[in-house]
Structure formats: structure tokens, C-alpha cells
Request: fold
Amino acid sequence: MFLKEFKGKWKITDMDQWEVEPGWFIEFDEKGSGSFQFICVQADMDCRIDDEKLGFTFHGENEGDEIFGRGWALK
Reply:
């Protein structure tokens, strides 16, 4: 149910490692999937509700190199 609150395409406004640029986004559906893109990084996500935030694992690529990890989003 909480995933429906995140459904849609959201602008990335803050990141630990990079200064955010226009056009960077993260997108969620209500079924627990999503994707994001910034710089040369593109990944698909598997999302779950974790306390009061949306936690996700991701798998994708950065300039052809495989990447994976975890992250979270607050509404």
C-alpha cells in the first residue's frame, strides 16, 4: 500500500557522492519495481518498505560496467 505513495517519476534532489544535475530521476511503480538514471548510471530496482522509508536494491550499469547496491528514498 505504501508503495502507491511513491508511484511515478521523481527528480533526484540529493546524493552523497555527486552534485545533483537537472534531468536525473528515480521512478517507482506500485508493484515494487523501479529504475533510475544519472550521469552514465542506469539501473533497475526492487523496492520494499523499510520503516518509514522506501528501501531498494539495484542492478544495472555504469559506462558498461555492472553495478549493484542498496539505497533508500524518502517522500
In short: Helices lie at 3-6. Residues 8 and 28 are 5 Å apart (CA to CA). The chain has a mean pLDDT of 87. The chain is about 5% helix and 55% strand.
